[in-house]
Amino acid sequence: MNREGIIRIVFYSIIVLILLYFSIGYSFEVYRSCSPIIDVSGAHDIVVDDTDFSPLVMLLGYGVNGVLLFITQGLYAIIILIVSALFFLPFRFIGLNKKNNVTLTEYAIYKYSFIGALILSLIISAILTKFTGLLMIVLYNGIWAIGAFILVILPAKRFNHVS
User: Fold this and answer.
1) What is the greatest pairwise CA distance in the chain?
2) Phi, psi (degrees; rounded to nearest 5) at 100
3) 47 in helix, strand or coil?
4) DSSP symbol at 149
5) How far apart are CA 31 and CA 135, in angstroms?
6) Cα separation of 90 and 86, whole Å?
7) Among 47, 59, 107, 159, fewest CB within 10 Å belongs to which?
8) What does DSSP assign to residue 50?
9) Do residues 159 and 100 lie in contact, with contact meaning Cβ atoms separated by under 8 Å?
10) Are 36 and 136 in contact (CB under 8 A)?
11) Structural element, H or E, at residue 37
């Protein structure tokens, strides 16, 4: 393996570690922040003109909490997507271009480190969140995994001419 290949592997490893930090951290943050933002536990006996508005106030409070959690989860996914694109696009077009020949060893390192990092990230996220919010775990890890697969693994395979 040549010097450029080693540099590419080091940069790829750093990028994947940063994205693992984001996906695991945001999965845990969504798990930890599921506590309601608007506390409606004390919304009892709200009477206006002899009509009890307590159920309506509680329903609106729960609805606002759900919407805010949904927006937060969406923003986390967008952040992971943007960071993935900011790291993988320059890596793909500068580091993995047609002039640079990717060796079979380098391709194998990309491929197996990708698989290992994805499995490790899914397991750590699931353990930290106590196996709740599995959809968010798969979404957050899937975003960077798809980016890595499309922008690193497939081009490395194509430039190596590995079948």
Assistant:
1) 82
2) -90, 120
3) strand
4) I
5) 12
6) 7
7) 47
8) T
9) yes
10) no
11) none
Give the DSSP per-residue string, 86-146: HHHHHIIIIISSTTSPPPHHHHHHHHHHHHHHHHHHHHHHHHHTTT--HHHHHHHHHHHHH
46, 53 contact by CB (below 8 A) = yes
Measured distance between the N- and C-terminal CA atoms of the chain, rounded to whole angstroms:
19
Please, are residues 23 and 140 in contact by the beta-carbon 8 Å criterion? yes
Pairing, β 47-48 against β 51-52: antiparallel
Q: Which residues contact 49 (CB under 8 A, 6 or more apart)?
A: none
Q: In this structure, are residues 125 and 140 in contact, taking their beta carbons and an 8 Å threshold? A: yes
Give SS3 for 82. Answer: helix
What pTM was estimated for this model as a whole?
Answer: 0.82
Q: What percent of the chain has pLDDT over 70?
A: 95
What's phi and psi for 48, nearest 5 deg? Answer: -125, 120
Q: Report the sign of the C-alpha dihedral through residues 154, 157, 160, 163, in that order.
A: negative
| Two tokens, residue 48 | 């206006």
Binned average pLDDT, 10 residues per bin, the chain of 163 residues: 87 94 90 74 74 80 86 92 94 80 87 95 94 90 94 86 54
Q: Which amino acid is at 11?
A: F
CA-to-CA dists, residue 59 to 30, 34, 52, 145, angstroms: 22, 17, 13, 38
Task: Return the structure tokens found at 93.
Answer: 């077009």
